[in-house]
Write a structure and sequence with these properties.
The chain has four helices and six strands, in the order αβαβαβββαβ. It has a three-stranded parallel β-sheet. It has a three-stranded parallel β-sheet with strand order 2-4-6. The chain is elongated, with a radius of gyration of 32 Å. 13% of the residues are buried.
């Protein structure tokens, strides 16, 4: 029968080191040293004062990640679905339509078919997309 005096514990009691008792004076932390102190710990990459591996290895090559331009992509299919014939489509209109995120550069790709005469004012456009827009009488202006 389940009673208050014979309940099964769901969690184990946490071992509180450094409080004396059955663990002796060092409380399972060994003798002295940085790791025996409260708050004393070293990061996994620390090598005891030796020159770290990340600094010993030669640095080679070039990384362009600081200057990389990331584009939000818009397809001709999306433009065909969202905008009317004869309209001038700007980045602000694409933002309001939910096609792009704020502050991102916009690039138009030639996925799908464009059947409407529209003028695009965007940051970049693929050559195929530009030809497809001009084929139906539209224009592409790069900002």
């Amino acid at each position: 029968m389940l009673q208050l005096n014979n309940l099964v514990k769901l969690t184990e009691k946490r071992k509180r080191v450094g409080r004396g008792g059955c663990r002796g004076g060092t409380s399972g932390k060994g003798h002295k040293g940085q790791k025996a102190r409260s708050g004393g710990s070293v990061s996994a990459r620390f090598e005891g004062g030796q020159m770290p591996l990340s600094r010993r290895l030669p640095k080679r090559g070039f990384s362009n990640h600081m200057f990389k331009q990331e584009f939000d992509l818009v397809t001709l299919e999306q433009l065909n679905r969202l905008f009317e014939d004869g309209q001038t489509v700007t980045k602000q209109m694409l933002l309001e339509a939910g096609c792009v995120k704020k502050g991102m550069l916009v690039k138009v790709l030639a996925t799908g078919v464009l059947e409407k005469n529209i003028t695009l004012v965007v940051d970049a456009c693929s050559q195929t997309a530009k030809e497809a827009v001009e084929r139906v009488g539209g224009a592409v202006k790069l900002v």
